[in-house]
Amino acid sequence: MKVAVAGATGVVGRHVVAVARSRGHEVLELARSLGVDLTTGGGLAERLDGVAAVVDTTSVATQRRAASESFFGSVTRTLLTAEKRARVGHHVVLSIVGIDDVGLGYYQGKQFQEYVVTEGAVPWSILRATQFHEFAEQSLGFMRLGPVSLVPRMPSQPVAASEVAEALVDLVDAGPSGRVPDLGGPERLDLVDLARRVSRARGMGRLVVPLRVPGGAGRAIRSGALFPAEGGPRGRQTFEEWLSAT
To answer: How far apart are the first and last CA of the chain?
Structure first.
């Protein structure tokens, strides 16, 4: 099967490329660095010939609702329009656990992305996953004051990006499946503690200071809104195993 991966050079996208190829799929990588602008469609249409499924793992670095909705809306509409013209039969989206209950700007953009997909003309699958193990290291750069990193105080259930990729390729193989059960990691942990463990293991020397997320979003996070529903699939690799391996 010919599979296109949007965001192919990202944290999850590169794993999707590797997993799909390991299963014998022909993989087409879509990314700005590879000559495809997914916000405008530049370089996209001519590359989808013969593609059976598109996996969207794109992301944007913003917490502003308007910017997030603009990015995910434009990328999703651009992909779906090109897919319809190319007669692509399956659009697979990676989303995030908890976006309905946590009113953060980035999450609102992901909600809008899901809406555009479900209202579109291309058959679809949506997988929501918890934060990746890599999120702990990323959090050290959110708010930096010299050697100090302000890290949100939040419970987390991190999952390996490689295992999220496996689940996405499972959906490619299964065909359009709608919204599937949430995928989470094997452990419930605290992000501040994870950030400190990463800093020590990497020799980064960051002083991690907990930051309480204010407002309704903070209350939802602290109540466990970012945890997956009971009964869904769970990853295998623990955070400590990932940290040791990387």
So the answer is: 31
Q: Which of 193, 222, 223 is nearest to 209 (CA)?
A: 193
Give the pairing type, strands 26-30 and 2-6.
parallel
CA distances from residue 9 to 91, 135, 177, 197, 242 in whole angstroms, order as listed: 18, 16, 25, 26, 20
pTM higher than 0.90:
yes
Q: Angle at which helices 65-86 and 105-119 pack, to 10 degrees?
A: 20
Alpha-carbon span 128 to 180, nearest angstrom? 8
Contacts of 58 (CB under 8 A, 6+ apart): 6, 7, 10, 13, 38, 71, 72, 75
- C-alpha 99/C-alpha 105 separation (Å) is 10
Residue 177 domain boundaries: 2-245
**DSSP-derived 3-state class of residue 192:** helix
Are 64 and 57 in contact, with CB atoms under 8 Å apart?
Answer: no
The CATH number of residue 34's host domain is 3.40.50.720
Domain count across the chain? 1
Q: Which two tokens stand for residue 82?
A: 């090109």
The Cα 48–Cα 113 span in angstroms is 21
The string of pLDDT tens digits covering residues 20-72 is: 999 999 999 999 999 999 999 988 988 999 999 999 999 998 989 999 999 99
User: Rounded distance, CA 210 to CA 154, Å?
Assistant: 9
